[in-house]
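Dear support,

Our group has been running a series of protein-ligand predictions, and this particular one with 2-acetamido-2-deoxy-beta-D-glucopyranose is the one our PI (initials K.S.) wants archived with full inputs and outputs. We had some confusion internally about which version of the output was final, so please treat the block below as the authoritative record. The input we submitted was:
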Amino acid sequence: MDIISFFPSWILPTTLLLFFTSIFMYALRMRRSSIRLPPGPKRLPIIGNLHQVLGKEGVHQTLWNLSQTYGPAMLLHFGAQPFLVISSTEMATEVLKTHDEKLCTRPYSKATKLLSFNYMDVAFSPHSDHWRDMRKVVVSEFLGAKRIRLYKNMMEIEMEAVIRSISSHSLNTTVNLEDILLSLVYDVVGKVAFGNSYRGKTFNGRTLKDIVEEVQVMGGASFSFIFPTFGWILDELTGWNRRLQKCYTDFDGFLQMILDDHHDTKTSGHVNDFVDDCMSRLTTEEMKALMMNVLEGAVDTTTITMVWAMSELVKNPRVMEKLQNEIRRCVGRKSKVDESDITKMPYLKMVVKETLRLHPPAAFLMGRECVSQCRIGGYDVLPGMKVMVTAWGLGRDPRIWKENAEEFYPERFENIKADIGGKNFEMIPFGGGRRACPGNNMATSTVEFTISNLLYFFNWETPAGLKKEDLDMKENGFPFLRRTTPLCLVPTKHNWED
Ligand code: HEM
Ligand SMILES: *[C@@H]1O[C@H](CO)[C@@H](O)[C@H](O)[C@H]1NC(C)=O
Ligand SMILES: *[C@@H]1O[C@H](CO)[C@@H](O)[C@H](O)[C@H]1NC(C)=O
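Confirmed final output from the archive:
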């Protein structure tokens, strides 16, 4: 009997298996320990770095301050989720351009999945062929030449109504510009996309505006998002799940109501809207998901930009006067501002750009997630890490905008060629790369058109007793940074002296 047959037959293969497994584990450990994660503040067990942001006034400001200590590629944990926070032009270029392909998916969350009708949309969808197809639909059908023409016509009509309504106010009355501009954008987008503004309609007692706001809130973080193992219990106990379900039911109901209206009516002379043109080739879920993207992506962002522009103009009378001179000189004495007048207003373009620099509505773009390992700023970024890029911080970085970075000074764009189309990344109010905002041009021309009208017809003052330089500019909010106080101003009709 030789020694080999003494051992049971399984011993040799098992030993070999153990041997190779341990070598493999060792190699894996070596590789892991060679991973260099981005630096970041120390984290506590379970909550990670949550205590550093929760309850603080503005997360955008807090994270920007932290990045001054830990660097422009910084790693934080919110609960169990790792977040890479990007705070410089160089790092943003690496994320949005160099490694765009590896960082261009969106994080999964229960809320975004439900509210995008199972990721049938563009904005929240993971990177996929379906996302690409849906993005093409939005670009050609909502942002294509035909719809833009309709949009501009509608904008002129609604703008005239706004001018008439403001003119009808008696002297020295304060108007809430935010309300006026939000209604304007709702009316225009609603009519172009759905054939009707739906402003007076309700579903389950809620208006479209209420529901759109609720969707924004629910799209934010929940316990299950930051604590994937046990968070669902907290979401159940806190009532968050029920609130999400209600939000979904109302939203779905409202959108179904809009679709039903399109099945019923086809009167002659009817101008085809976005829904008319897409309904036949998209599923009901795809249709609703795109309607959601238009409502959530186009309305508040555009309005917020207009409101910040007006706030900065009132606070900076020098800029206001210079811009008003340009507008009134280019338009001349007419009854309305034409599209072609606006092409002759370079200062207006700089004012809108300067507004988006200091007040990008989406302070952190939209969340991204790493799909395959890559290096950002020399650090390793691993699959599953979430990526936040601060548009707000980049717009105030003194290394780019010099010592007057905090000042509203549109003339700076005479010397710095910062484009906002996502080619270079000094300022990124619309993001960049594959996931960049497709509505960039529509948004800026809407803001330019509105501001030029408001300034052509009226002069704007702060209410009696409030000095212009004391106008409150506090900002906060999720997902969009907006004024914390309403913008109430006193318009007076401009008198041409002759
Ligand atoms: C001032 C107005 C606007 C601002 C500041 C804005 C900003 C943004 C930002 C920061 C993103 C994320 C980009 C990224 O992740 O890199 C985004 C995405 C998007 N925006 Fe806008 N946006 C505006 C207006 C519009 C308009 C008018 C539309 C009209 C359809 C629109 C549709 C979208 C869509 C569909 C996406 C998702 C793109 C994707 O994930 O592929 N936005 N926007
Ligand atoms: C951030 O830093 C600035 C300047 O150092 C300071 O004034 C501000 O209070 C800080 N904000 C937060 C939220 O930490
Ligand atoms: C409007 O307000 C100004 C300044 O507060 C005042 O001088 C003027 O008399 C007011 N006009 C009317 C019609 O109330």
